[in-house]
Amino acid sequence: MIPTYNEKKNLPTLIELLEQTLKNIGMQSLVIIVDDGSPDGTGEIAEELGTKYGNIVVLHRNRKMGLGSAYKDGLMYALDRFNADIIVQMDADNSHDPKYIHDMVKMLQEGNDVVVGSRRVDNSSVVGWGYYRKSISYTANAVARVTCGFGIKDVTSGYRAFTSRCLRRINMDEIQSAGYAFQVEMLYRLARSGFGICETPITFVDRKEGRSKLNSNEMLEFLSVCTRIMFSR
After folding, report:
1. Which of 132, 136, 155, 199 is deepest in the core (most CB within 10 A)?
2. What does the alpha-carbon distance between residue 134 and residue 59 come to, in Å, rounded to a whole number?
3. Could you tell me if 26 and 225 are in contact, meaning their C-beta atoms sit under 8 angstroms apart?
4. Regarding beta strands 114-118 and 203-205, do their DSSP bridges make them parallel or antiparallel, or are they unpaired?
């Protein structure tokens, strides 16, 4: 499941790699793209890719409603419409290499409920970030771990795999975060429900095309969500 907003230069490359990975894994699979009315034509390109590969469904939303909102719609669509057994979420900007999906799925099959593609465990790495971006990520993860009581090192990673069992046991309609803070609130609810969450190392490569959607409003919402979770524990 891939949320998109103005990713027309990145999406074709990602889908080509993803389709080859899914073919090699040999599992019956579907790609769900949730596009927030991208003015650059990402939604139209997604439809063209769907025609080319035959296993892509595009959810078109008519305006930018937030990353967390897109994740929620995509996850619920996969569960309710297609009764998926396993759902993998990833970014569209080619920062998440599809080659890690095989290991993530295997870890779910071994009994884990959630697998996080982590940039903060042994054998992981980040390519292309400067000091400022690394500092933001480090601080955000530190804040989330303290306020939410997490043992997970990369709480903000958007590369994750879930079993349908754990997703069906939480009420995603109750998740209030519409933006990046969704990542934290989602993990908190899963951990609080007693599901097993583990991490696997990835190499994260910063986007080469397009611009990051992270901004000051997203940072403020992140702090607000962490504070709300801390006082609700």
Report:
1. 155
2. 32
3. no
4. unpaired
Asked if residue 32 lies in contact with residue 1, where contact means CB atoms within 8 angstroms, the answer is yes
Structure tokens at 193: 């429900």
> Comparing C-alpha atoms, which of 1, 218, 210, 202 is closest to residue 96?
202
SS3 assignment, position 173: helix
In eight-state DSSP terms, residue 15 is H
**Longest alpha-carbon distance in the chain:** 49
| Phi, psi (deg, nearest 5) at residue 198 | -130, 170
Tens-place pLDDT, residues 72-105:
999 999 999 999 999 999 999 999 999 999 999 9
User: Domains in the chain, start-ordered, CATH in brackets?
Assistant: 2-232 (3.90.550.10)
Based on the number of CB atoms within 10 Å of its own CB, is 50 exposed (0-12), middle (13-18) or buried (19 or more)? middle
| Rounded distance between C-alpha atoms, residue 202 and residue 18, angstroms | 16
More confident site: 181 or 47: 47
Measure the CA–CA gap between 156 and 140, rounded to whole angstroms: 8
Question: Do the beta carbons of residue 29 and residue 22 sit within 8 Å?
Answer: yes
Q: Which pLDDT band holds residue 229 (cuts at 50, 70, 90)?
A: confident
Contact 11, 43 (CB under 8 A): no
